[in-house]
Design a protein that fits this description.
With about 280 residues, the chain is α+β, with helices and mostly antiparallel strands. About 40% of the residues lie in helices and about 20% in strands. The strands form 2 sheets. A 5-stranded antiparallel β-sheet has the order 6-7-5-9-8. A 4-stranded mixed β-sheet has the order 2-1-3-4.
Length: about 280
């Protein structure tokens, strides 16, 4: 059964294990930490057919992973949640950032691009960055010549310095020293040639759920809108929070990096549409 065949609620969180056969053998052992010492030899023969020496490390790793998963599943289910255990060999229909997945790590699905999974440690940074980037892509495709991103609340300059807004044909900068003195809220200033033609770019995953974005797009596409102002709101933690972090750590599973906790955040984006020379004229 593919990961995408499960309902989103059941597969929003996944834990990656080595392979299906390994997972089944460890699960069939039904071992607890209290029993582990007394049953070690017999279970090792049961799991690995008597090939002991090379199997010891794999066995111990498997038992720790299995027991950790049992504890994590119990903790998450006790508060009404769900986590899916997935074999590393059965991930063809979902996507991960470069360098992932990692065995023993826990991942959460992107809230709107639901076949994309981020490591728990970096989930909020990457999810928020994807939302900001999509808004900027939409504005550029609609013909923006200037885009200023300002901090309103939540994550600010330290967070924005880690974002990589690589935009072809655009001049992207942080706030200048003069801007910092005048207005501490400016995070990015993007300058483009602009365009009098407008379209929506492909591959949008947030747009469907953002009514203000739709209104701006309609204003530009149908009525020649010249100026825009919109907010990027990031209020939901999507179940990825310090409680989940603690449960994963207690289970000795992997966060895959330093945990970046949720912070309710609002950034505003303002600017103008059209060819730059037309605007200056």
């Amino acid at each position: 059964m593919r990961v995408s065949d499960y309902k989103y609620f059941d597969r929003r969180l996944i834990a990656v294990v080595p392979n299906e056969d390994f997972r089944k053998k460890v699960a069939e052992a039904k071992i607890t930490r209290r029993e582990e010492a007394g049953l070690l030899g017999r279970l090792r023969r049961f799991l690995f057919g008597g090939v002991e020496d090379q199997a010891v490390s794999l066995f111990n790793t498997g038992i720790d992973l299995y027991l950790g998963l049992v504890g994590l599943q119990s903790a998450i289910r006790s508060r009404g949640g769900s986590i899916l255990t997935v074999s590393k060999t059965d991930l063809e229909d979902i996507r991960f950032p470069p360098g992932h997945p990692d065995i023993g790590a826990v991942y959460s699905a992107h809230p709107t691009d639901t076949l994309l999974y981020y490591p728990i440690s970096d989930f909020h940074r990457q999810t928020f960055e994807s939302k900001v980037s999509e808004a900027v892509r939409i504005l550029m495709a609609l013909g923006a010549n200037s885009i200023d991103i300002r901090h309103v609340s939540g994550w600010s300059r330290e967070f924005s310095s880690e974002m990589g807004l690589a935009l072809p044909g655009a001049s992207v900068s942080g706030a200048s020293e003069a801007q910092k003195k005048e207005n501490q809220e400016i995070l990015f200033s993007i300058r483009l040639a602009g365009s009098n033609s407008a379209e929506l770019p492909p591959g949008l995953v947030w747009y469907e759920f953002e009514e203000t974005w739709k209104a701006i797009a309609e204003g530009r596409l149908k009525y020649g809108l010249k100026n825009f102002s919109l907010a990027i709101n990031y209020n939901d933690d999507y179940g990825v929070n310090s409680e989940l972090k603690s449960e994963i750590e207690e289970a000795n599973l992997k966060l895959s990096g330093k945990f970046f906790d949720h912070e309710s955040t609002v950034w505003s984006i303002e600017g103008k549409f059209g060819l730059e020379e037309d605007v200056q004229a």
